[in-house]
Sequence to fold (652 residues):
Amino acid sequence: MNIVVLVKQVPDTWSERKLSDADHTLDRASADAVLDEINERAVEEALLAKEAQGGEVTVVCMGPERANEAIRKALSMGADSAVHVSDEALHGSDAVQTARTLAAAIGTLESVDLVIAGNESTDGRAGAVPAMVAELLGWPQLTYARKLDTDGQSVSIERESDAGVATVEANLPALVSVTEKINEPRYPSFKGIMAAKKKPVSTLSVADVGLSADEVGLGSAPTQVVSSAPAPPKEAGVKVTDEGEGGVQIVEFLSGQKLV
Amino acid sequence: MVDFSLSDTERDIRDWVRNFVQRELMPLEPEVLRRERAGERGLSKDELAELRDKARQAGFWGVQTPEEYGGMDLSAVLTALIEVELGRTFVPFSFGGYADNILYYANEEQKQRYLIPTIEGQRKSCFAITEPGAGSDAKNIRTTARKEGSEWVIDGEKTFITGGIDADFAMVFAVTDKDKGADGGVTCFLADRDMGWKSEPIDIMGEWDRMPASLVFDGVRVPEENVLGEVGQGFALAMQWIGRGRYLLPARALGGCERLLDMAVQYSKGRETFGEPIADRQAIQWMIADSAVEIEALRWLVLQAAWQVDSGMDSRHAQSMAKLHGGVRANEIVDRVMQIHGGMGYTRELPVERWYRDLRLLRIFEGTDEIQRRTIARNLIKGHASIGGVLG
Ligand SMILES: Cc1cc2nc3c(=O)[nH]c(=O)nc-3n(C[C@H](O)[C@H](O)[C@H](O)COP(=O)(O)OP(=O)(O)OC[C@H]3O[C@@H](n4cnc5c(N)ncnc54)[C@H](O)[C@@H]3O)c2cc1C
Fold:
């Protein structure tokens, strides 16, 4: 079974993250960049499926040259090879263009059975790319999986949403996006780290995946970020000391905020 | 001319440890502080063993241990980088799979009984040279060993022995030929606790993980097959043990300094006095700037010493410099960081005072500041080292 994992390099949630003042895109220089935690879980799930069913795991990543660090991390966890779409023209691409690029990159691979992605990245958090990729590939999409099972022919997930948990099943090929509940990712092993450098990574341009430069990037993005502002600092909360009136005070506070 | 960058693999290994520290160790910090303040061990032995197992499952075990013993056999530079990362937390952790360098001089039979079980974590060693009357001048030790039949009988007292509380064997140094002294008259013995030595903990300024013990040898009988190396050649082994990685002590302190300065920068941005954040005050900025420069200098003293080790050069001079600079500067930095935190820095709510107490040791053990200066000056005066450093 051949599995593709979509991975993204994001600013470390441990460091301070900000947008660039010039074009409201992510200021990648301002924070440490790491493989997105949700993608570590996606890689883990792919490795578990491979360990059960055999086959190969390929990571597909779109991002600047520096994203090769995130790719190496996925390879050191145990993925077999990688495709890195890296092109100046991609700067500022929105969710639609990203999905188009990733779908095109997947199209360059032979016989993919399953695509696994994180449900949403910890930076952009649009949560739209996996569904769009599935749509562009014309495959079933099984999103928000907290559990994944596959026998090599079909895939079944537990889909968790605010409304509840549903079991969803599809024949392969299909795309699954996973939530942070899916698993605890393994640490890359020392041997894995040493081996990662030797695994094949093909670096492709926009043209290599069959798109033209004016279809991607900030200039032609269907959505635009018009302005951005840092989140206001948290204000000190109200402390309620319960002297018999605590419950009433809390209800008053909540109704004052129109929360109840 | 000089390339200061890391290779991809070096970076990945360093980042792995950084991630492990963030995910596994830093979350334990509040609990470790709480326990230490209640006079308990920061990490129980079981917790430490569990963390070590977790790292071992990913192959992080035996950082400098040769591959034939299952270790990673990493370079000195990488080992230093790993120590820096571990130093970023005060949670007392080190990777498993370690054995003292001089145990590798053991013969085959001793390796089975001491070296391998120590690497595997089944046995625990301690290194015992210092005595109440012999610290910096270790050549002056008075503990004796006399031969009776096929046994050696050891009498004397050792003090400040790290790990002496719960070690199950000691690498103990004793005089076997008084006339020859350190030059051919000191021998190293592998003395099991159940051969009869006793230990007594010594209460110190630092926490549990630092707590040393005094060891009493009162007619302790050690079989002759427990001599490590050759009879009379012990002092050279002692010097090798002490020199095994002097660059690693300041490496760990460096990690602590990086974290502390980071805390100070964050605190100075949030703390307002007279209507402005203290970060806007020159007095505070100068403390931050001086600390950053000293940290940078320390980083390269440490890594350069490690690089000399990897290059097979005589690195002793560089190691002394790194140890001296690390001890002195780390103490100045933690003092400034405490100053920037004001009263909060002095409380036990923050770990600054813990680091303050811990880092003080670096100026004393494994060669005091004064002894490092003595070594450095002598090397220069005698022409063993160049003021121009490795570039000559
Ligand atoms: C927590 C801790 C753990 C330790 N762990 C171990 C261990 O595992 N094994 C072990 O064997 N030892 C251990 N030691 C002992 C340590 O190595 C000695 O304390 C150290 O070498 C200094 O010796 P001393 O305490 O006898 O001081 P002294 O040698 O008495 O020195 C006192 C002062 O005089 C200065 N001084 C000494 N000689 C000179 C000189 N020639 N010129 C100028 N100044 C001089 C010193 O620098 C120091 O300031 C440990 C010590 C501590 C505190």
In short: Chain A has a mean pLDDT of 90. The helical segments of chain A are 37-53, 68-77, 95-107, 129-137, 190-196, 246-256. The domain at 2-220 of chain A is CATH 3.40.50.620 (Rossmann fold). Residues 58 and 81 of chain A are 5 Å apart (CA to CA).
